[in-house]
Amino acid sequence: MIWGEGLEDISILGPGKIYGKGLSRGLGFARRDLLPEERAAATKPDLSFPPAVRALVEKIVPGPFGTPGRDTLPKGVGNKAISLKGCRNVTFRDFTIYHGGHFGILATGVDNWTCDNLKIDTNRDGIDFDCCQNVRVSNCTVNSPNDDGICPKSSYGLGYARITENVTITNCLVSGYDEGSMLDGTRKRREEGPFGHGPTGRIKCGTESNGGFRNIAISNCVFEYCRGLALESVDGALMEDIAVSNLTMRDIVNAPIFIRLGARLRGPEGTKVGTAQRIKIDNVVAHNVAAEAGILIVGMPGYTIDDISLSHIFIDYAGGGTAEDAARVVPEDEKIYPEPYRFGKLPSWGLFARHLKNLVIDHVEFRVAKDDLRATAWLEDITGVSIDHAVFPHVSAATALVTKEVRGLVVTNSPGLSIENSPTH
Description:
By secondary structure, the chain is mostly beta strands. It has 3 helices and 27 strands. The protein has one domain (about 1-420): Pectate Lyase C-like (3 Solenoid).
């Protein structure tokens, strides 16, 4: 592992490769994680904690919030290719990481950090920056089938809450192909399992969200064979002033866009629900998106996500939803780990939005590959909805737009948009 703490004016520059062959990815693996070729050759690889090591780990005095958890490793076992803490004026450029462990790069409390033209093909997270400010991530290719690709966080890793802010992520590609197959050019895909068990990849703000996210710009990025964009505040922090533009997505295995305000509240006692507001997403194109979930934007009863704008978006979905799916009641589940699959198959295939205030839908078009008997869009408990130039196709047995407890709905320039006011379930 390459690590540094309290450093200033440092660089790691390529060309060259960091090969994390000796690293563990956590998840109960007490020794190094097998390489793809080793995993393929092994019939019954024993990767679990041996009983003696398990006993040592269990004797560790627990830290805050229930740690150590499943990613705790015995002394001498590393799980990161590069780790920085409390550093300033940092440049990473022009190198490759292969098999980076739990984190290819983990930066905690690092400010004025430029991360440019990296290639990362790894077995868990690619680039994570936690409680960092003034960050520039550009021109990076990150393949991470088993965890997130580029992931801003704002945890209690410093011992106090610190906001992640002033961040740009631009001109990047994230994907979820089998590990190693991005670098060798084969781009292999795993056998698909049930909803929620496909590759991860993606760009995600969260899940750790104690300090919050502010002034985040994500632009000109490609998502391929992975999960969609996720913006999450579930641990009591604010999430505001976020601009997302010019994304193209293909073969997305869950919601193409997921925005969540929740109440997991992992943090000090007395942590309260946070806020999510002023989020603008513009110019998104997505093809072959999973049938189970469309765009998913969910707050909580009494805690709304405010001032959301979806504009110039074109998405085509796999479709195939049934009448039984259309009648399904979606649980709140505000205290669980935030992932689209945890909500189950939604009663709408294009958009599901609940507990919002001021939602703008402008020049948004959805299509579906197979007939789907669910509503195209579902809006619930929302104050102030403006829909302009929306194309929400639907089969004759379904409705384009279902509204439930929606106040102040204005629809313009959207011919053929049938609206059903749903009864209370």
